[in-house]
Amino acid sequence: MDYLRWIRNNFTKIELIDDRILHEVITEAKADSATLNELCKALGVLFIVVPFNVYLAVSGLLSYDNLSFWLVMLITAMIGVGVSLYIEQKIIKRKIAQSISKLKLAGD
User: Fold this and answer.
1) Which of 17, 38, 84, 93 has the most CB atoms at less than 10 Å from its CB?
2) How many CB atoms lie within 10 A of CB 25?
3) Which ranges of 1-49 would DSSP assign to H, the alpha helix?
4) pLDDT band at 46 (very low <50, low <70, confident <90, very high)
């Protein structure tokens, strides 16, 4: 995601701040939330992908040697990744917004 463009669109009053400073804010927000993002990815797999695939395997709706089982498994994995990516972006955006509000307060 282009966080610099997101910042410019959502924080219109910070046009005076240099892009280099904003890149530092973005990098810092990504680094600060890296562990939490990995936790969200693991939880996404744990709560979305694994239970659904275990249910399919136990219920006998699909078997491992069936192509549709692997397609369903791939689709649920994509959903899990999509959910974790969405959560990751929300966390990074919140960290960026907090950092920018501190920059605006320091600039005033």
Assistant:
1) 84
2) 22
3) 3-10, 19-32, 34-44
4) confident
The whole-angstrom separation of Cα 81 and Cα 78 is: 5
Cα 75 from Cα 67, distance rounded (Å) = 12
pLDDT in tens, 67-81: 877 887 788 778 877
All structural domains of the chain with their residue ranges: 3-107
pTM, rounded to two decimals: 0.73
CA distances from 24 to 32, 87, 92 (A): 12, 21, 13
The span from the CA of 84 to the CA of 32, in Å, is: 17
Phi, psi of 43 (to 5 degrees): -70, -35
pLDDT, average across residues 80-98: 87
CB atoms within 10 A of CB 50: 13
100 alpha carbon, distance to own chain's centre: 20
